[in-house]
Amino acid sequence: MNNDIEKILYTQEQVSNRISELATTISTKYQDEFPVVVPVMTGAMIFASELMQKLDFKLNIDYVDVSSYEDNSQSSGRVRLLRDLSHDVNGRSVLIVEDIIDSGHTLQFLNNLFASRGAKSIETCSLLDKPARREVDVDADYVGFKVPNEFIVGYGLDYDGRYRNMPYVGVLKRSVYEN
Ligand code: 5GP
Ligand code: MG
Ligand code: MG
Questions:
Q1: For the domain bounded by 18-68+88-148, which CATH number is listed?
Q2: What tens digit of pLDDT does each residue of 51-60 get?
Q3: Which ligand is nearest to the CA of 140?
Q4: Which molecular function term from Gene Ontology is one that the record holds (predicted)?
């Protein structure tokens, strides 16, 4: 285990098993939908690549990249789109794939964006959910694991651009970011 990790919450095997379960559930609902699947870069990349390989229906893969403003003064302006879709989602079902739902601002922003473009349905699958930190009333439709209010890294999640490639979900030692 990496020396900067306080504890492992979910091993690679536990995560992979859970992703298989999520894929089975989602596959029963999307047989005739032909959705656009939209991972949110960069955090969702590792989770999404494994999930999408296990989805057993016709789909298109796209992606978006977003960033959160540090300045929290305008709630609607907290999220900025850095990379837009290449697909037109008008009349299409959209499945957003996220690494973690925290405050909920990112998900709310994307829901509003895709709804404004006429998406037929919008659902979200998130590897992790941190409900204790929610600031807006949004939830993922499919969640891998609920996590405590701690700083999580691994399986795509980073601190300062690092730890994304760790093949497990863990809690980062406070000493790494409290200096
Ligand atoms: P939101 O607050 O908009 O729901 O989540 C925005 C983003 O914050 C997430 O997609 C994720 O990139 C980041 N984030 C939230 N909580 C954590 C965490 O515990 N660890 C890491 N690495 N990123 C997080
Ligand atoms: Mg994210
Ligand atoms: Mg990040």
A1: 3.40.50.2020
A2: 999 999 999 9
A3: 1
A4: hypoxanthine phosphoribosyltransferase activity
Using CA positions, which residue lies closest to atom 10 of ligand 1?
A: 100
- What is the rounded distance in angstroms from the CA atom of residue 148 to the CA atom of residue 151? 9
CB 138 within 8 A of CB 157: no
Nearest ligand to residue 163 Cα: 1
How far is Cα 52 from Cα 54, in angstroms, rounded to an integer? 5
> Is pLDDT at 24 greater than 70 in this prediction?
yes
Mean pLDDT of the chain: 95
Centroid of ligand 2 to alpha carbon of 2 (angstroms): 22
Sign of CA dihedral 123, 63, 46, 156: negative
Residues enclosing ligand 1, CB less than 6 A?
A: 43, 68, 98-107, 130, 151-153, 157-159
| pTM beyond 0.90, yes or no | yes
- 40 alpha carbon to ligand 2 midpoint, in Å? 6
